[in-house]
Amino acid sequence: MKNVDDLIESANELAGQGLSNGEIADELNVSRETASWLVDRGEGSDTTTQESSSDALEDIHVDWSALGRDSTRLADVGHAMADLLGGEDVDLVVGIEKAGTPLATTVALELDADLAAYAPRKHQWEEGDIDDLSGSFSRNFAEIRGRDCYVIDDTITSGTTMTETIDAITAEGGSPVGCGVLVDKRGVEELEGVPVKSLLQVIRVSREE
Protein backbone atom coordinates (compact mmCIF):
# COMPACT_ATOMS: atom_id res chain seq x y z
CA MET A 1 0.00 0.00 0.00
CA LYS A 2 1.29 3.45 -0.86
CA ASN A 3 1.66 5.98 1.93
CA VAL A 4 1.90 9.75 1.62
CA ASP A 5 5.66 9.67 1.14
CA ASP A 6 5.28 7.23 -1.76
CA LEU A 7 2.74 9.52 -3.41
CA ILE A 8 5.00 12.54 -2.92
CA GLU A 9 7.83 10.65 -4.61
CA SER A 10 5.55 9.57 -7.48
CA ALA A 11 4.27 13.13 -7.93
CA ASN A 12 7.83 14.45 -7.95
CA GLU A 13 8.87 11.91 -10.61
CA LEU A 14 5.88 12.81 -12.78
CA ALA A 15 6.57 16.52 -12.40
CA GLY A 16 10.17 15.86 -13.44
CA GLN A 17 8.84 14.23 -16.60
CA GLY A 18 7.06 17.48 -17.46
CA LEU A 19 3.49 16.52 -16.51
CA SER A 20 1.19 19.31 -15.40
CA ASN A 21 -0.39 19.22 -11.96
CA GLY A 22 -3.66 18.27 -13.62
CA GLU A 23 -2.03 15.35 -15.41
CA ILE A 24 -0.40 14.25 -12.16
CA ALA A 25 -3.82 14.32 -10.51
CA ASP A 26 -5.06 12.10 -13.32
CA GLU A 27 -2.15 9.66 -13.01
CA LEU A 28 -2.44 9.32 -9.23
CA ASN A 29 -6.25 9.43 -9.15
CA VAL A 30 -6.38 12.30 -6.70
CA SER A 31 -7.85 15.79 -6.83
CA ARG A 32 -5.98 18.65 -8.47
CA GLU A 33 -5.52 20.27 -5.07
CA THR A 34 -4.02 17.09 -3.63
CA ALA A 35 -1.71 16.76 -6.64
CA SER A 36 -0.49 20.33 -6.10
CA TRP A 37 0.12 19.58 -2.43
CA LEU A 38 2.11 16.46 -3.30
CA VAL A 39 4.21 18.30 -5.89
CA ASP A 40 4.91 21.14 -3.44
CA ARG A 41 6.13 18.65 -0.84
CA GLY A 42 8.45 17.08 -3.38
CA GLU A 43 10.16 20.31 -4.40
CA GLY A 44 13.01 20.29 -1.91
CA SER A 45 10.76 20.44 1.12
CA ASP A 46 11.81 18.57 4.24
CA THR A 47 8.20 18.07 5.31
CA THR A 48 7.70 14.67 3.72
CA THR A 49 7.13 12.75 6.94
CA GLN A 50 3.92 11.17 8.07
CA GLU A 51 3.65 13.74 10.86
CA SER A 52 3.58 16.58 8.32
CA SER A 53 0.89 14.94 6.21
CA SER A 54 -1.92 16.19 8.42
CA ASP A 55 -2.12 19.46 6.49
CA ALA A 56 -2.88 17.66 3.23
CA LEU A 57 -6.36 17.95 1.80
CA GLU A 58 -8.60 15.02 2.58
CA ASP A 59 -8.53 12.64 -0.36
CA ILE A 60 -8.38 8.97 -1.30
CA HIS A 61 -5.74 7.52 -3.62
CA VAL A 62 -7.00 4.76 -5.92
CA ASP A 63 -4.44 2.39 -7.41
CA TRP A 64 -6.05 0.15 -10.05
CA SER A 65 -2.82 -0.71 -11.86
CA ALA A 66 -3.37 -4.43 -11.14
CA LEU A 67 -6.26 -4.18 -13.60
CA GLY A 68 -4.73 -1.73 -16.04
CA ARG A 69 -1.53 -3.63 -16.67
CA ASP A 70 -3.29 -6.86 -17.65
CA SER A 71 -5.34 -6.93 -20.86
CA THR A 72 -7.50 -9.86 -19.74
CA ARG A 73 -8.42 -8.19 -16.47
CA LEU A 74 -9.11 -4.94 -18.30
CA ALA A 75 -11.42 -6.75 -20.71
CA ASP A 76 -13.24 -8.31 -17.75
CA VAL A 77 -13.71 -4.86 -16.22
CA GLY A 78 -15.06 -3.57 -19.54
CA HIS A 79 -17.57 -6.40 -19.60
CA ALA A 80 -18.64 -5.57 -16.04
CA MET A 81 -18.97 -1.85 -16.76
CA ALA A 82 -21.00 -2.48 -19.91
CA ASP A 83 -23.30 -4.76 -17.94
CA LEU A 84 -23.59 -2.19 -15.14
CA LEU A 85 -24.59 0.60 -17.51
CA GLY A 86 -27.56 -1.43 -18.67
CA GLY A 87 -29.51 -1.71 -21.89
CA GLU A 88 -29.48 1.81 -23.32
CA ASP A 89 -29.29 1.78 -27.11
CA VAL A 90 -26.03 3.67 -27.68
CA ASP A 91 -23.64 3.50 -30.61
CA LEU A 92 -20.80 5.54 -29.10
CA VAL A 93 -18.64 5.33 -25.98
CA VAL A 94 -16.62 8.39 -24.94
CA GLY A 95 -13.46 7.80 -22.90
CA ILE A 96 -11.97 10.57 -20.81
CA GLU A 97 -8.21 10.64 -21.37
CA LYS A 98 -5.95 9.25 -20.21
CA ALA A 99 -7.09 6.38 -18.04
CA GLY A 100 -10.71 6.42 -19.15
CA THR A 101 -9.88 5.69 -22.77
CA PRO A 102 -8.66 2.09 -22.42
CA LEU A 103 -11.67 1.38 -20.19
CA ALA A 104 -13.97 2.95 -22.76
CA THR A 105 -12.36 0.82 -25.47
CA THR A 106 -13.28 -2.37 -23.66
CA VAL A 107 -16.81 -1.11 -23.00
CA ALA A 108 -17.24 -0.12 -26.66
CA LEU A 109 -16.07 -3.58 -27.72
CA GLU A 110 -18.67 -5.19 -25.46
CA LEU A 111 -21.43 -2.98 -26.84
CA ASP A 112 -20.28 -3.11 -30.47
CA ALA A 113 -20.12 0.70 -30.39
CA ASP A 114 -17.78 3.32 -31.80
CA LEU A 115 -15.19 5.07 -29.65
CA ALA A 116 -14.47 8.74 -28.97
CA ALA A 117 -11.83 10.28 -26.71
CA TYR A 118 -11.95 13.54 -24.74
CA ALA A 119 -8.90 15.33 -23.29
CA PRO A 120 -10.10 17.37 -20.27
CA ARG A 121 -8.82 20.84 -19.53
CA LYS A 122 -7.23 19.68 -16.26
CA HIS A 123 -4.37 18.20 -18.31
CA GLN A 124 -3.26 21.78 -19.00
CA TRP A 125 -3.78 22.97 -15.44
CA GLU A 126 -0.94 24.04 -13.14
CA GLU A 127 -2.58 26.61 -10.90
CA GLY A 128 -5.14 29.37 -11.01
CA ASP A 129 -8.57 29.31 -12.62
CA ILE A 130 -9.15 26.12 -14.58
CA ASP A 131 -12.14 27.74 -16.31
CA ASP A 132 -9.68 29.72 -18.43
CA LEU A 133 -8.66 26.45 -20.13
CA SER A 134 -10.51 24.18 -22.53
CA GLY A 135 -10.68 20.48 -23.34
CA SER A 136 -10.96 18.83 -26.74
CA PHE A 137 -12.12 15.72 -28.58
CA SER A 138 -9.51 13.75 -30.51
CA ARG A 139 -9.97 13.88 -34.28
CA ASN A 140 -8.55 10.35 -34.50
CA PHE A 141 -11.73 8.85 -33.07
CA ALA A 142 -15.46 8.92 -33.82
CA GLU A 143 -17.52 12.10 -34.14
CA ILE A 144 -19.98 13.10 -31.44
CA ARG A 145 -22.76 14.96 -33.23
CA GLY A 146 -26.18 13.34 -33.31
CA ARG A 147 -25.19 10.30 -31.25
CA ASP A 148 -26.30 8.82 -27.93
CA CYS A 149 -23.31 7.83 -25.85
CA TYR A 150 -21.89 6.54 -22.59
CA VAL A 151 -19.10 8.45 -20.84
CA ILE A 152 -16.35 6.39 -19.20
CA ASP A 153 -13.62 7.32 -16.73
CA ASP A 154 -11.65 5.51 -14.05
CA THR A 155 -12.57 7.61 -10.99
CA ILE A 156 -14.80 10.44 -9.89
CA THR A 157 -13.14 12.64 -7.28
CA SER A 158 -15.10 15.89 -7.39
CA GLY A 159 -17.18 15.31 -10.50
CA THR A 160 -15.70 18.33 -12.27
CA THR A 161 -14.08 16.42 -15.14
CA MET A 162 -17.12 14.24 -15.79
CA THR A 163 -19.38 17.30 -15.73
CA GLU A 164 -17.06 19.09 -18.15
CA THR A 165 -17.15 16.11 -20.51
CA ILE A 166 -20.93 15.87 -20.41
CA ASP A 167 -21.18 19.57 -21.25
CA ALA A 168 -18.63 19.21 -24.06
CA ILE A 169 -20.56 16.30 -25.59
CA THR A 170 -23.80 18.28 -25.44
CA ALA A 171 -22.10 21.29 -27.03
CA GLU A 172 -20.94 19.02 -29.88
CA GLY A 173 -24.50 17.86 -30.53
CA GLY A 174 -24.26 14.51 -28.75
CA SER A 175 -26.51 13.07 -26.04
CA PRO A 176 -24.87 11.50 -22.96
CA VAL A 177 -27.27 8.89 -21.56
CA GLY A 178 -25.07 7.40 -18.83
CA CYS A 179 -21.69 7.62 -17.13
CA GLY A 180 -19.61 4.70 -15.87
CA VAL A 181 -16.55 4.68 -13.61
CA LEU A 182 -14.49 2.16 -11.71
CA VAL A 183 -14.53 4.12 -8.45
CA ASP A 184 -16.75 6.97 -7.31
CA LYS A 185 -15.07 8.85 -4.45
CA ARG A 186 -17.86 11.41 -4.19
CA GLY A 187 -20.96 9.21 -4.14
CA VAL A 188 -23.03 10.78 -6.92
CA GLU A 189 -26.08 9.33 -8.59
CA GLU A 190 -26.18 11.79 -11.48
CA LEU A 191 -24.34 14.74 -12.98
CA GLU A 192 -26.05 17.30 -15.19
CA GLY A 193 -29.08 15.02 -15.18
CA VAL A 194 -27.07 12.06 -16.53
CA PRO A 195 -27.08 8.88 -14.39
CA VAL A 196 -23.73 7.82 -12.93
CA LYS A 197 -22.90 4.20 -12.13
CA SER A 198 -19.75 2.89 -10.49
CA LEU A 199 -18.33 -0.55 -9.85
CA LEU A 200 -17.03 0.66 -6.49
CA GLN A 201 -18.16 3.55 -4.32
CA VAL A 202 -16.12 5.02 -1.48
CA ILE A 203 -18.04 6.04 1.62
CA ARG A 204 -16.18 8.03 4.27
CA VAL A 205 -17.20 7.17 7.80
CA SER A 206 -16.18 9.72 10.42
CA ARG A 207 -16.90 10.02 14.11
CA GLU A 208 -17.33 13.39 15.75
CA GLU A 209 -15.56 13.69 19.07
Care to describe what's here?
With 209 residues, this protein is of the alpha/beta class. The protein folds into 2 domains: 4-57, Arc Repressor Mutant, subunit A (Orthogonal Bundle); 65-201, 3-Layer(aba) Sandwich (Rossmann fold), CATH 3.40.50.2020. 36% of the residues lie in helices and 20% in strands. It is built from 7 helices and 7 strands, in the order αααααβαβββαβββ. It has a 7-stranded mixed β-sheet, with helices on both faces. Helix 6 (100-111) links the parallel strand 1 (92-96) and strand 2 (114-119). Helix 1 (4-16) crosses helix 3 (32-42), helix 2 crosses helix 3 and helix 5 (71-85) crosses helix 6. The longest helix is centred in the middle third of the chain and has 15 residues, at 71-85. It is globular, with a radius of gyration of 17 Å. The two termini are 28 Å apart. This is Transcriptional regulator GfcR. Belongs to the purine/pyrimidine phosphoribosyltransferase family. GfcR subfamily. Residues 64-192 form the Phosphoribosyltransferase domain.
Count of separate structural domains: 2
Helix content: 25-40%
Note the beta-strand portion. Answer: 15-25%
CATH architectural label of the largest domain: 3-Layer(aba) Sandwich
Enumerate the spans where pLDDT stays under 50 for 5 or more consecutive residues: 46-57
Structural class: alpha/beta
CATH topology of the largest domain: Rossmann fold
Count of helical regions? 7
The largest sheet has its strands arranged as 3-2-1-4-5-7-6
Q: What series of H and E elements makes up the topology?
A: HHHHHEHEEEHEEE
The 3D shape can be described as globular
Question: What is the CATH class designation of the largest domain?
Answer: Alpha Beta
Largest sheet: 7 strands, mixed
Quick check: average pLDDT? 85
For the secondary structure, the number of strands is 7
Indicate the radius of gyration in whole angstroms.
Answer: 17 Å
Give the CA-CA distance, first to last residue: 28 Å
GO biological process, one term: pyrimidine nucleobase biosynthetic process
Family: Belongs to the purine/pyrimidine phosphoribosyltransferase family. GfcR subfamily.
Domain Phosphoribosyltransferase: 64-192
Pfam families: Pribosyltran (PF00156)
